[in-house]
Amino acid sequence: MADCIFCKILNKELPSEVVYEDDQVIVIKDINPMAPIHLLVITKRHIASLNEVLPKDEGLMGHILMVGQKLAREFGIAESGYRVVTNIGKDGGQAVPHLHFHILGGAALGTKLA
Ligand code: AMP
Ligand code: ZN
After folding, report:
1. How many domains are contained in the chain?
2. Could you tell me the CATH number of the domain that includes residue 19?
């Protein structure tokens, strides 16, 4: 997708700090971290948000969570705990309309979700 920040990152048109990559996802460090560890699991296919995910993407959704689990272990936050979040649309606070899951940890996170 033209003009999509994450598609540009995937195409290496924009720089990023990649910590993991496979055929389905890329994981980068968030440029504006909200926690000591803040990673973004980004789908390689441009999907606007969870709203646009199709039944055929069920495997991809599971894969994203398994990659999140693996990265949490590697970044040393599996035992202390962490949060996995995907924002959807305007009220969800989604700034980048390309499906991504935030992995947040490394400190006690706020309990307020809204
Ligand atoms: P969301 O509000 O859920 O759409 O989250 C978008 C996230 O992408 C925010 O946490 C931003 O800090 C992050 N972000 C935006 N541009 C970049 C970039 N070029 N590299 C890494 N993270 C980015
Ligand atoms: Zn995109």
Report:
1. 1
2. 3.30.428.10
The CA distance from 48 to 60, in Å, is 14
Which residues constitute the domain of residue 88? 5-98
3-state DSSP assignment of residue 74: helix
Alpha-helix runs per DSSP H in 11-113? 58-74, 89-92
What predicted TM-score, i.e. pTM, was given to this entire model?
0.97
Q: Is the dihedral of CA 68, 69, 73, 74 positive or negative?
A: negative
Which residues sit with Cβ closer than 5 angstroms to ligand 2, an ion? 1, 4, 6-7, 46, 98
Residue 111 has pLDDT above 90, yes or no: no
Q: What is the pLDDT of residues 22-59, one digit of tens each?
A: 999 999 999 999 999 999 999 999 999 999 999 999 99
